[in-house]
Every structure is written in structure tokens, then in C-alpha cells.
Amino acid sequence: MMDISILPAVNATLNGLSAALLGCGYVFIRRRQIALHRACMLTACVCSVLFLTSYITYHSQAGITRFAGTGWSRPLYFTILFTHTPLAAAILPLIIVTVVRALRADFARHKRLAHWAWPLWMYVSVTGVLIYFMLYHWFPSR
Asked: Helix (H, G, I), strand (E, B), or coil: what is residue 81?
């Protein structure tokens, strides 16, 4: 039996890696370094797939993690969570279509969609790490 208690940290690490790779991918495409952009973006996809697998595994075993913070932290946490969650669900098909367009060399349509997909994916990745820290480090359940 696997010790699932490490999975929240694994998930945050994978989200953080995705964010870093997205940032690098953005810089590389602005510099017209297509091969490096492609490598970063595909690796970010792999990190996100691994995250999703780990996230589902953890929550299917552990259930819901309740936020223990009080005062100002509660509305902040739930504002982040309520923006993160629907965007996390919506971003998956957006990423898939964006990647498929790039792989098919449909770069004009890829670029138009990537203008929406990239910032949303970045937001979901960064807020995922923030949610982890709020739940497990800054305001942990006692």
C-alpha cells in the first residue's frame, strides 16, 4: 500500500514545475526559440498529466481536505479556490486543443488559442501551489 500523505507535496511540486516550464516556454517563444518552447510546453503537459493522476489518486483515498484558517485567511482562500477550481476544469480541453493545433502545425490557430490558454494554465498552476501552502503549511488542520 502506498503512503498517500506525500501526494499533496508531489502535487504542489508538479504544479510548480508546470508554472516554471510555462514561464520558460513563454520566454522561448518570444525569442523565437521554437524547439525550446516546444520542449518546455510538452514537458509542462507531462507534469500536468502526472499532477492530475496524483491528485485523483490522493483525493480518492483521502477525501476532502478542509481549510482550517480563520479570519482574513478564509475569504482569501475561498476566493482563490473558487477561481482556481472551475478554471482547472476548463483548462484541460483548452490545453489539448492548443497542443493538437501546434502538433498539426496549425500555428495561426494555435497562437490565437494559446493567448487564452497560457495565462489560464499559469494561473491554475500558481494558485494550485498557493492552495497547497495555505492548506498544509500556513493554516494546517490540527
From this structure: helix
DSSP code of 16?
H
**How far from 63 is each of 2, 51, 129, 140, CA to CA, in Å?**
16, 17, 19, 16
Mean pLDDT of 5-10: 96
> What are φ and ψ of residue 103, in 5° steps?
-65, -25
Rounded to the nearest 5 degrees, what angle is found at the Cα of 51, between the Cα atoms of 27 and 138?
A: 90
Asked if residue 82 lies in contact with residue 119, where contact means CB atoms within 8 angstroms, the answer is: no
Q: Please write the tens of the pLDDT for every residue from 50-65.
A: 999 999 999 999 988 9
Vertex 68: Cα angle to 56 and 88 (nearest 5)? 35
> Rounded distance, CA 113 to CA 65, Å?
34
Angle CA(24)–CA(47)–CA(138) in degrees, nearest 5?
Answer: 90
Domains, the chain, with CATH or none: 4-138 (1.20.120.80)
62 neighbors 4 (Cβ within 8 angstroms): yes
Question: Taking Cα atoms as reference points, which of 95, 103, 99, 85 lies closest to residue 121?
Answer: 95
